[in-house]
Design goal:
By secondary structure, this protein is an alpha/beta fold. It is built from 14 helices and eight strands. A hairpin with a 4-residue loop joins strand 3 and strand 4. The chain is elongated, with a radius of gyration of 28 Å. The termini are far apart.
Amino acid sequence: MKFTDKEYLLLNMLCEHHIPSEVKEGTIQEIANRLLTLYEYNSLNEGSAENSNQETHSFLEEIREHENIVSLELVAWKQWNNIVAYAFRNKQEENVISFVYKGENPIEGYADIIGKDIYIFQEALQFFEENKGKNAVVTGLTLGGVFAMFVSAKVGNVTGVVFDSPGIGTVLNSNPTIQVKNYVSMNSFIAALGEHTEEIVFASPNQEMGDSPFSDNWQDKFSFDDNQSLLTGEDGGMFYLLSKISQSITLNSPVFNQVIQAFSQAVHVENDVDEDVSHILFSIAENFDANKLRTTFQIIEGQYEKTINENYAKTKSELLSLANINEIDDIDNKVGLFTEKIMQQVENSYEEYYQSIEALLSFLVLYAEDENFETHIEEELNNFIEKLNGKLDQISIKITNDLETFIQSFVSSFEESF
């Protein structure tokens, strides 16, 4: 079964947003007709948003123009863990299977899916085996594409196309060939997640993304030539920066969250934990300028000092447990190990703050509207790093003084006991 790149996208869009349970049967032509009737009815009786209805109506009309799609018959569907799989069959009994994500936040959904047992992927594999017909291709959007690629990797010789899908390298125990192309749009955070072993093709957007750097409309994210083949875009330099940021998001790094909060606070952007972080970042970029760098760094400096003091306070309890040592010869060795541990924690915290700041500054260099932003970064960043190093020296001195006091107290107590 062969589809154009645009037909793959249209089919997935239909599956993602436009198939309520009451119309999950028949050909796509019949489904589209019933959906048009349903949306027109809702528009008249429920006062649906005019723009939304116009987009839906336009999309469904476009679907009906593609003969390769409208003759497909929906033969099966299944839902589990916010994933829905649809199996469509043509007259030659060839199938296309689409996997789409129905949850609210795909970034959180990815972390949830990856954290589950392999059974969640076996569900996709079982659905494919039951509905592959004489032969089948797979496709999917965002997290749905994860399952399409998993099927391709496990079954072998299964081709297809996915859009803005995270990598699945961490899910696979080996490194099998994935014969599915992953079309990645500009600024796609969800696609930047995970370890990619499939072929990635970076897409050219269908509009000037400089005016609107983030769009929820799939047809804005991808453009096609007259043959409905994908038009390729940039080489993906931004993709690797987003991968670095997305990794911090996936790991739910407290330090990264603090840094995002500091940048948001400096420009008075509300940092809603339930909001897609990409929207937050672009909102920061729209409002950020060189004059806000110092304020941002001051906020982060306070956060850093608070973090290392809290970590030291927690670890200091281990120091008190050393008082149970009965041999005075052991104290220097134990204190030495403790010192290495706490200083390693402090240095790790320092490195995590620096990497988080570096990633966000790199993003802002590309998207901040202030033309003077980049020229001010080096000076302000150097001043900030100097202050962080000062905090590092202060905590080192504090640790040294605490340890000297502890050793003196321990030796005195030990001598008094004899």
